[in-house]
User: What shape does this take?
Amino acid sequence: MKIYLMTALLALVMPAQLLANTQQQADTTIKYHTNVVFQPNDSRFTADTTLTIPAEKLTHQTIALLLSKQQSVTEISGAQLASSNIESSPRVPPWNRITLNFKKTGQSNYKVKLKYSGAINAEAGHGNYINAQGAHLSLDSAWHPFIADFATKMTGTLALTVPSNWRVYSPGQQERPTQDTVMIRNQMPAIDVVLFAQQSPKVITTEHVEVIYQGIDAQQAQHLADDATQCLTSLNATMRAENTLDHADLIILDRSGPSFARGPYISMSKSSLSSREADYQYICHELAHNWTPFADAMSHDYWMMESFAEYISAQQLKQRFGKEAYADAVKRWQNLAKGVEFVWRSDDPKRASHRVNYGLGPLLLKRLADRMGADNFEQLLAWYTAHEVTQTEQLLNKIGALTSKETQVWFTQQLAQKKP
Assistant: This one.
């Protein structure tokens, strides 16, 4: 809230150009400009990308990227680049780690260009593919370079050369300069670049939601569109106003692999659909990610992002379908939590499992809400969804500030060891 107030005050006392310069200087997001040519008949593509990296993102003039080993890098260049190295990623062996070493020039930004080409492993179990009918590319494919810490965000422009009868979905503003070219400008910071494209997709549209679907019938797609619209409207009314979602693209794919959300772009697996109530919570969970701060995707703090989204979606489920449906969700958490030792410990950096993120984590948030009381927990949730809360210690300190040191210590112990 203080940041927005300060910006408003600056607008009153500073000339417009000076204010624009101040805001520009404050923008330290990595930028990409990527050109991609799809070759759908043989499931391949070629790409070149230019990254503009703020100096403060470098550590000792160095930064590392990740890119799938299925991509063959033909060029790494830049006037400010001192050297580069490609080796197997120790954290994710199917990917390469590309280390970039820059000359110390004192400049505010450093640029590097990468050219590469390759294919997508459709058999990896993540639902990524390129074929004659379309393409689905997510973080799991590592098709586009991203920062190796799994936390640093980027914005940028994606220029796609695709068949003229493909319709493309991706976060950001889109235009089609020519029949076979799509430009996507994305100003929403994210760690990766994702997209879905399809020849003549099946679509159901409501006022605020578009459902693009495979493997289900039009009636089920309409139910999903109606449910997404209702949940989106409810979340917009109750969550942080600055993050309001005007619309969402809900992409239901006949694929395996995890679901994920990037603001208004939500990719979901058909195989995860079940009952109307469960599907409603499933959709609400993905929509809720628009308000859950993004922690390092590989860290022990990542549980917060998933567990808060799960908790928020369960509250939406209760509001829509009642206490019995909510009780079923809690039972599902309890079943997932069986045998799980802990959620988070300060001295254990390992990322939590899905049984923590979608089971024990939200279950402990429910216990916390019961202990704190509705008003205090509502304040905690409002604070969490309005700030970049990426470390569990931040959450614990806020709990102490809203309640007591005793409650802070209690929840720390809850996270560290499951109680019977």
Remarks:
- Confidence is low (pLDDT under 50) at residues 1-25.
